[in-house]
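Chain A, query sequence.
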Amino acid sequence: MPILENAKKALRQSVKHEKRNQTIKAEIHSLRVKLRKAVTSKKIDEAKEVVKLIGKKLDKAQSKKIFKKNTVARLKSRMMQKVNALKIS
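Chain A, predicted structure.
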């Protein structure tokens, strides 16, 4: 356990941030699963809506430094590839 007051405060803050980050990551993960199911069942309209929502969530997470910039770019790129392939076929 930390002894100094500033170390105690840092521990409290890190616990709070960890909890917040976990909920946001879990929400994004569940949306990605929803998108995957929409793509496999070829529901184009539902997939488009979920893509918009995931894009917003990822950008927000990037601004809060939960995800790195390149990670968000990679996830969004792969997501759009799947949806665009769905449109073609």
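Residues 17 and 88 are 42 Å apart (CA to CA). The radius of gyration is 17 Å.
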